[in-house]
TrEMBL record:
Belongs to the DapB family. Pathway: Amino-acid biosynthesis; L-lysine biosynthesis via DAP pathway; (S)-tetrahydrodipicolinate from L-aspartate: step 4/4. It is an enzyme of class 1 (oxidoreductase). InterPro entries: DapB_C, DapB_N, DapB_N_CS, DHDPR_bac, NAD(P)-bd_dom_sf. PANTHER family: 4-HYDROXY-TETRAHYDRODIPICOLINATE REDUCTASE 1, CHLOROPLASTIC-RELATED, DIHYDRODIPICOLINATE REDUCTASE. One of its GO terms (cellular component) is cytosol. Gene3D superfamilies: Dihydrodipicolinate Reductase, domain 2, NAD(P)-binding Rossmann-like Domain. The lineage of its organism: Bacteria, Bacillati, Actinomycetota, Actinomycetes, Micrococcales. This is 4-hydroxy-tetrahydrodipicolinate reductase. GO terms for biological process: diaminopimelate biosynthetic process; lysine biosynthetic process via diaminopimelate. The keyword NAD applies. Residues 110-238 form the Dihydrodipicolinate reductase C-terminal domain. Keywords: Amino-acid biosynthesis, Cytoplasm, Diaminopimelate biosynthesis, Lysine biosynthesis, NAD, NADP, Oxidoreductase.
Length: 250
């Protein structure tokens, strides 16, 4: 069975990558390529709407797709917990469509985030530094937000991280009590470092994206899962069993 995909945000860097990948992958058909001038009606008739727009546009794309019975794969950053919660409430009584939200399609990035959550219960001092290309419009990145949220969840029984002087602007933005610092630099694609400090030692978990090719495997895994999705799923780790969980460390 061929899965028909409409890509919204098709002219951006990720959009071009996804369109080319769909066109050369058996079992998928690229039926629409929407840009900022396109009517959202152009996605009607697809099985999946793949949103690669901007934070201020993504919500309207998702709403339109769901109103017209499309499954949705979101690769746009900026989805807050409140927005995700509202979306989950909207889909609670529907069994015909679903939404998958992926902050980062890189398998290595997802593993680094999972490793950080595993380590979080052993260290009280934790901070995140994320760096992206100068053109990235949102900060902190969706990956950094997701990492901080999972760190916070992993520490539910231990309490908040030790983050002194957070009243000072240079100490970063608090996400689930974890300070997050954002860099936007020319010549860079994406990098994230999670710094964990304890008595007499520090641990740094780093992931560096060198090419957009790093996203290909995750994109294909997410597309395969989206066709059968129900409700709201957040994170590639919910699709791929990494064999890791905070409780596994015991």
């Amino acid at each position: 069975m061929t899965t028909r995909v409409a890509v919204i945000g098709a002219t951006g860097k990720m959009g071009r990558l996804v369109c080319g990948l769909i066109e050369r992958t058996e079992g998928y058909e690229l039926v629409a390529q929407l840009n900022s001038q396109s009517s959202l009606d152009e996605m009607i008739g697809a099985d999946i709407a793949f949103d690669l727009t901007r934070p201020g546009v993504s919500q309207s794309v998702v709403d339109f797709a769901l109103d017209h019975g499309l499954h949705v794969l979101v690769g746009t950053s900026g989805w807050s917990q409140d927005r995700i919660g509202s979306l989950a409430h909207r889909l609670a009584d529907r069994d015909d469509v679903g939404v998958i939200i992926i902050p980062n399609f890189s398998i290595g990035s997802v593993l680094a985030t999972a490793f950080s959550a595993l380590a979080a219960s052993f260290y009280d001092s934790i901070e995140i530094v994320e760096a992206h290309q100068a053109g990235k419009v949102d900060s902190p990145s969706g990956t950094a937000v997701r990492t901080a949220e999972l760190i916070g969840a992993a520490r539910a029984g231990r309490g908040p991280v030790s983050a002194p002087h957070t009243d000072q602007r240079a100490r970063g933005q608090q996400v689930s009590n974890v300070p997050v610092h954002s860099l936007r630099l020319e010549g860079l694609l994406a990098r994230q470092d999670v710094f964990l400090g304890g008595t007499g030692e520090t641990l740094t978990i780093s992931h560096n994206t060198l090419s957009t090719d790093a996203y290909i495997q995750g994109i294909l895994l997410a597309l395969a899962a989206t066709r059968e999705a129900r409700g709201v799923t957040v994170g590639l780790e919910q699709i791929v069993d990494l064999g890791l969980s905070p409780g596994a460390a015991a």
